[in-house]
Amino acid sequence: MTEYRTVFRPEAQAELRKIPRDMALRILAKLTELEGDPLGFNTTALVSQPDRRRLRVGDYRVVYTIDNGELVVWVVHVGHRSTVYDT
C-alpha cells in the first residue's frame, strides 16, 4: 500500500505550537498512523466543506484535505473542538 506524507500549512503549524506538548505529540502520532489510510481511521468529511476531513484526537480536531495525485495529506487546521471550525 502506498504511504501518503503529511504536510502542514503554515497556519496549522502555528496552531499546533499553541497546543499543550503532550496533546501535540498525540496528534502527531495519529497523523503518522493516518498516512497509511487517510480516508479511514475514524475520519469524517465536513458537512460545510466536503473536500475537507476531520480527525478526532481527544478534545482536539485536525482538519485536512487529501491530494491523491501527490499522495499528500494537507493539514489545514489544528485546534480545540470548540474553536477549530470557526476559521
UniProtKB/TrEMBL annotation:
Keywords: Toxin-antitoxin system. Coiled coil: none annotated. The keyword Transferase does not apply. It comes from the Bacteria. The keyword Amino-acid biosynthesis does not apply. Pfam families: ParE_toxin. PANTHER family: TOXIN RELE. Belongs to the RelE toxin family. This is Addiction module antitoxin. It comes from Streptomyces phaeofaciens.
